[in-house]
């Protein structure tokens, strides 16, 4: 019985390390993707409307809310589909 406690602690530490590694990488990638979308704001290169901006921002915001719900155990595995 005493041997299981250190094994569980080690397993928990490994799970934490893996979570931190993945969370950092995925969050950095998401931030890069958002910054790439923001580059579409160059009016000299692109033509878009305020409605387009609201759709993009709304889709991103809904996905953030879904992320929060999933991570607080109160949500489902729904995903946001997006088209202009």
What structural category do the secondary elements indicate? mainly alpha
Q: Which strand-content bin applies to the residues? A: under 5%
Q: Name the helicity range.
A: 55-70%
Summed over residues and divided by their number, the pLDDT gives a mean of 90
Give the C-alpha Rg: 19 Å
The oligomeric status of these chains comes to single chain
Terminal-residue CA separation: 58 Å
Low-pLDDT runs? none
| N to C succession of SSEs | HH
Shape: elongated
Number of helices: 2
How many β strands by DSSP? 0
Main β sheet profile: none
Descriptive overview:
It is a single chain. With 84 residues, the chain is mainly alpha-helical. The chain has helices at 4-38, 50-71. It starts with a helix and ends in a 13-residue tail after the last helix. The relative contact order is 0.07. The mean pLDDT is 90.
Question: Outline of this structure?
Answer:
It contains 2 helices and no strands. The protein has helices at 4-38, 50-71.
Features:
about 80 residues, mainly alpha, 2 helices, about 70% helix, elongated
